[in-house]
Design goal:
The structure holds two protein chains of two kinds.
Chain A: H1 3-22, H2 45-59, H3 70-73, H4 76-87
Chain B: E1 11-19, H1 20-24, H2 32-37, H3 40-47, H4 52-73, E2 83-87, E3 93-97, H5 102-105, E4 108-115, E5 119-127
Antiparallel strand pairs in B: 1-5, 2-3, 4-5
Helix pairs in contact in B: 3-4
The chains are: A mainly alpha, B alpha+beta.
Chain lengths: 88, 130
């Protein structure tokens, strides 16, 4: 699979999870690559932990305590890049 | 004239509020969600109550309040799951850091938790001895 194909699968999987499991029933904005997920209130500390669990299960990677920082979760694009790097 | 260096803080506070419903929808407590976020003792405490989701929300709020206070006080990044909430014989909650960071181990944390059937709130006071 090409790198862009892999990135696209990661992105659609993460976006699907955030929309269906985290942003349910909220007045969150449509989620694009650059939507500020923490700033806009889509993600908070509990939902970030849920997202970390999802990432570990779905992509078979281990997320360390020092990686659960706002920089890695502030946008969908940042999360995709974080997962892509974790997968190597 | 050189600028005076800002003195380091030795006391910080943290507060958190959680919707009970968010924990209720993750039930039962045997699932991965609870075992990842809560310690065995915390789960045992919460499920011993009549309505466990209220106490899961309160326990999480306490961990997050402690996390906020401590992370403002120390230089290292600490994960929320490195804090454990226990209860004394009088039922009062205590929170302790269970990780390995030597600076964070020195921090004294006081916690207070309250809840309704819908929300739980906690406030933490973290003190680093001089």
């Amino acid at each position: 699979m090409t790198e862009s194909g892999s990135t696209s699968i990661i992105e659609s999987s993460l976006k699907n999870y955030i929309v269906k499991e985290i942003a349910v029933g909220s007045d969150s904005p449509p989620i694009g690559d650059d939507t500020k997920l923490i700033e806009s209130g889509v993600l908070d500390s509990l939902s970030i932990l849920k997202l970390v669990m999802f990432i570990e299960e779905r992509f078979g990677v281990k997320v360390g305590a020092d990686e659960v920082v706002p920089e890695n979760f502030e946008t969908l694009g940042a999360i995709v890049e974080f997962v892509r790097q974790k997968k190597g | 004239m050189p600028m005076a260096k800002e003195p380091r803080a030795w006391i910080q506070i943290g507060v958190d509020i959680e919707r009970v419903e968010r924990f209720r929808k993750e039930m039962p407590p045997s699932g991965h969600f609870f075992s990842t976020i809560f310690t065995k003792r915390e789960i045992e405490y919460c499920v011993s109550k009549v309505d466990p989701p209220i106490h899961f929300a309160g326990t999480f709020a306490a961990k997050e309040a402690a996390h906020k206070a401590v992370n403002r006080l120390t230089t290292n990044r600490i994960l929320i799951t490195s804090f454990e909430v226990t209860h004394g014989k009088d039922g009062a909650p205590n929170v302790s850091y269970t990780g390995k960071d030597s600076e964070t181990k020195k921090v004294d944390i006081k916690i207070s938790v309250s809840h309704t059937t819908e929300d739980a709130i906690a406030i933490a006071l973290a003190t680093l001895p001089s």
